[in-house]
């Protein structure tokens, strides 16, 4: 594609300008692929974009509803297991704002990186669980026609995909937010949205979705309750710190995704 054709397509009003700046790069699960120029340039990989948009919107609504309805139950289970999901241990020895911001940024970066590695370790160590679960579902299906192993398998697959997609992206986006915030301090851009807030928001959304996914896996792998609750506690810890460090992140309006009135 030549430069003139690219510019022509970029001016097409069906595309949402800048929507790809604050997304999670998961095009296969995005509800705005048909409004994104980046996706349109590789449309042959996705087929009918508008049809996929509708499916993906339903997919993410399911995880959003799960987050709202199950967190109180998870917190109660964690409490019984001696895990404090709401704990945020921030060093208070130095009262200077600069020290607190620097210390908090380091904690966010370290903890989010540790989360990603811990998830890798868990899947490596528990790969057999998924094979055992498949055998279990198939055996139950032979006994009871009411059982639906297909749905359970789909739920486990969906939850696993979400956890795996975001496990390292959370760290990447939070690190970008930290770097951007440092650069923004020397710039006079109060009238413009902060890239640090936008990047942090993508990370926070990834955290929310990961928590929902772990909640789903908790239902299917009760023998892993303690470890899964620890992952949820770690994510809640990262989320709390990130919201303190980037108080404007949740209010950041991402093009397309967070606009009340969709662009036409």
Index terms:
single chain, 264 residues, mainly alpha, 8 helices, 0% strand
Could you name the ranges where pLDDT drops below 50 across 5 or more consecutive residues?
Answer: 90-94
- Give the domain tally: 1
Strand residues, percent: under 5%
What is the makeup of the main sheet? none
Shape label: globular
**Contiguous helical run count:** 8
Structural class: mainly alpha
Average pLDDT figure: 79
- Element order, helices and strands? HHHHHHHH
**Helical fraction:** 55-70%
Oligomer: single chain
Indicate the radius of gyration in whole angstroms: 21 Å
Number of strands: 0
Distance between the termini: 25 Å
Descriptive account of the structure:
This protein has 264 residues and is an all-alpha fold. It has one domain (49-245). It is 66% helix and 0% strand. The chain contains 8 helices and no strands. The chain has helices at residues 3-10, 37-40, 49-80, 97-125, 127-143, 149-184, 195-220, 225-245. Helix 4 runs antiparallel to helix 6. The longest helix is centred in the middle third of the chain and has 36 residues, at 149-184. The protein is globular. The two termini are 25 Å apart. Mean pLDDT is 79; it is low at 90-94.
């Amino acid at each position: 594609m030549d430069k003139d054709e690219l510019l022509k397509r970029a001016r097409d009003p069906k595309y949402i300008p800048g929507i790809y700046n604050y997304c999670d790069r998961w095009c296969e699960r995005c509800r705005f692929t048909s409004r994104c120029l980046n996706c349109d340039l590789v449309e042959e990989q996705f087929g009918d974009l508008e049809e996929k948009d509708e499916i993906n919107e339903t997919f993410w609504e399911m995880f959003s509803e799960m987050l709202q309805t199950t967190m109180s139950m998870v917190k109660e289970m964690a409490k019984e297991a001696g895990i404090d999901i709401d704990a945020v241990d921030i060093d208070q020895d130095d009262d200077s704002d600069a020290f607190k911001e620097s210390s908090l940024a380091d904690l966010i970066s370290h903890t989010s990186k540790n989360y990603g590695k811990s998830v890798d370790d868990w899947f490596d160590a528990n790969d057999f669980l998924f094979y055992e679960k498949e055998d279990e579902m198939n055996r139950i299906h032979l006994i009871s026609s009411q059982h639906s192993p297909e749905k359970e398998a789909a739920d486990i697959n969906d939850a696993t995909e979400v956890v795996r997609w975001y496990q390292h992206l959370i760290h990447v986006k939070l690190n970008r937010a930290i770097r951007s915030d440092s650069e923004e301090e020397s710039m006079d851009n109060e009238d413009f949205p902060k890239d640090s807030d936008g990047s942090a928001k993508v990370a926070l959304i990834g955290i929310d979705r990961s928590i929902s996914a772990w909640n789903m896996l908790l239902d299917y792998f009760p023998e892993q309750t303690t470890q899964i609750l620890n992952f949820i506690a770690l994510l809640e810890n990262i989320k709390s710190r990130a919201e303190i460090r980037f108080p404007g992140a949740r209010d950041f309006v991402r093009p397309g995704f967070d606009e009340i009135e969709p662009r036409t």
